[in-house]
Recover the amino acids of this structure.
C-alpha cells in the first residue's frame, strides 16, 4: 500500500480541531486503513466496528460503553447506529474532553445530515476517495487513469483482475451497500442509470433526456443522481453563476468520479481500448477535474463555465476574489483556443492552465500555460491558491 501522507495530515489536524471527526468516503477507498494508521499512533485507542454482529456498542448500552473511555475512540460504519449521534453530542461537551471520536461512514447521507444537525459546532468533516496522483509513483499514473484510484483495483495483479474487481464492487455497492444506507431504488434500475451517466460523462445534466431513456419521470432520475452523488461515486460540478453579462448554462455537469468505474461501465479493459474509445477526451477531462479539485481541496470552490454562445472552461477554482482556470486537452502539444481567451477575459482569470498528458509544462501566452498532469503536484506546492 502506498503512503497517504496528505490525507493522514489532514485527518490529524481535524482530530485536534474538534471533539468529533467524521471521515466519509465510498466503500473500499481506504478509510479503515487510514484510521488504523491514526489509531496505531495513539497510546489509547478503542475501536468499534458496527458491521460486527458481536460488537459491544449497541444503542441500548452505548452510554455505559462509551462514557468511561479515554483517548481516541473509532466507530467504523457509524451510519448503522444513527441513534449514537445525540449521545456523542453529550460526550463531546464534557470538560475537559477525555476522549475524541473518529466516525467512519460509507458516504451515508443520513450520517452527514445527522451529524450536521446533532453535532453542530462539535464536528468536523473529512472526505476521501481512492489514490490520487500525489500518492502513486509517476510511472504508475497512466495505470491510475485506466484502473481508477480504489486501492484493490489499482493494485490488482493484472488488468483482468482489476476489471473484475470493479465489477464485483459495483454489484456489491448496488445490491448490498446502498440498501444498508436506506436507499430503496432497485439495483437493476440504478445500474442502468449509472451506465447511462457514464456515457454522458462530462456532459450537461439533462433530466428530461435521461428520464425518457429510462422510461421514468424526471423526479426519479434526479433522485438517482442525488443518491450516487451522496455516495461519492458521481460528481455534480456546478456552473459559475455570477453575472458576466452573458447567457450562461445553468445546469451542472455530471461525472463518474472514479475513472476506473467509468471505464468499467464503458467496457474499457486496457490502455489501447481507452486510447481508441470515443470517450477518451471526456475520460481525460474527468480525471483532470477530479485530481485538481482533490489536490487543491477545492470541492466547494469548483465550478465550470459555459455560455450559450459557446465559450467554456472545464474547471474554475474560486478563492476569494482570485479565479484560476483549468482546461483539459488530451494531446502532447496543446494550443490556445478562442474559447480559452474569451473565458479568460470574461472571468478575469489570474491564470489558466491547459492540462495535458505530455511531459513538459510550458507558457503558451499571456496568463496561459500548458501543464503536464504529472506536474500538478509541483504546481500545488509552489503556487498559493489560498
Amino acid at each position: 500500500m502506498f503512503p497517504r501522507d496528505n490525507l493522514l495530515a489532514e485527518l490529524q489536524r481535524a482530530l485536534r480541531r474538534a471533539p468529533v471527526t467524521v471521515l466519509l468516503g465510498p466503500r473500499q477507498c481506504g478509510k479503515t486503513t487510514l484510521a488504523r494508521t491514526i489509531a496505531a499512533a495513539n497510546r489509547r485507542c478503542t475501536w468499534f466496528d458496527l458491521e460486527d454482529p458481536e460488537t459491544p456498542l449497541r444503542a441500548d448500552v452505548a452510554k455505559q460503553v462509551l462514557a468511561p473511555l479515554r483517548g481516541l475512540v473509532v466507530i467504523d460504519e457509524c451510519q448503522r447506529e444513527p441513534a449514537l449521534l445525540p449521545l456523542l453530542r453529550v460526550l463531546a461537551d464534557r470538560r475537559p474532553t477525555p476522549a475524541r471520536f473518529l466516525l467512519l461512514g460509507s458516504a451515508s447521507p443520513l450520517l452527514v445530515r445527522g451529524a450536521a444537525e446533532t453535532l453542530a459546532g462539535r464536528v468536523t468533516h473529512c472526505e476521501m476517495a481512492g489514490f490520487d496522483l500525489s500518492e502513486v509513483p509517476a510511472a504508475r499514473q497512466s495505470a491510475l487513469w485506466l484502473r481508477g484510484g480504489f486501492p484493490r483495483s489499482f493494485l490488482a495483479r493484472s488488468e483482468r483482475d482489476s476489471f473484475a474487481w470493479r465489477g464485483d464492487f459495483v454489484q456489491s455497492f448496488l445490491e448490498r451497500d446502498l440498501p444498508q444506507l436506506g436507499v430503496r431504488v432497485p439495483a437493476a434500475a440504478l445500474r442502468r442509470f449509472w451506465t447511462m451517466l457514464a456515457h454522458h460523462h462530462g456532459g450537461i445534466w439533462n433530466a428530461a433526456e435521461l428520464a425518457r431513456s429510462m422510461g421514468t419521470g424526471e423526479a426519479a432520475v434526479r433522485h438517482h443522481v442525488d443518491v450516487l452523488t451522496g455516495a461519492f461515486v458521481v460528481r455534480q460540478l456546478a456552473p459559475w453563476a455570477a453575472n458576466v453579462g452573458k447567457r450562461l448554462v445553468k445546469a451542472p455537469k455530471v461525472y463518474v468520479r472514479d475513472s476506473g468505474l467509468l471505464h468499467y461501465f464503458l467496457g474499457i479493459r486496457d490502455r489501447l481500448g481507452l486510447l481508441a474509445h470515443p470517450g477518451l477526451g471526456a475520460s481525460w477531462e474527468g480525471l483532470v477535474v477530479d485530481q485538481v479539485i482533490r489536490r487543491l481541496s477545492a470541492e466547494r470552490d469548483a465550478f465550470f463555465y459555459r455560455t450559450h454562445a459557446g465559450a467554456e472552461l472545464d474547471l474554475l477554482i474560486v478563492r476569494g476574489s482570485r479565479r484560476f482556470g483549468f482546461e483539459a486537452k488530451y494531446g502532447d502539444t496543446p494550443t490556445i483556443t478562442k474559447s480559452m481567451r474569451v473565458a479568460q477575459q470574461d472571468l478575469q482569470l489570474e491564470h489558466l492552465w491547459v492540462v495535458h498528458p505530455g511531459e513538459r509544462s510550458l507558457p503558451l501566452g499571456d496568463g496561459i500555460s500548458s501543464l503536464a498532469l504529472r506536474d500538478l503536484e509541483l504546481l500545488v506546492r509552489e503556487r498559493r491558491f489560498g
Summary: Residues 49 and 76 are 5 Å apart (CA to CA). The longest strand covers residues 312-319. The chain is about 40% helix and 20% strand. The two ends are 31 Å apart (CA to CA).
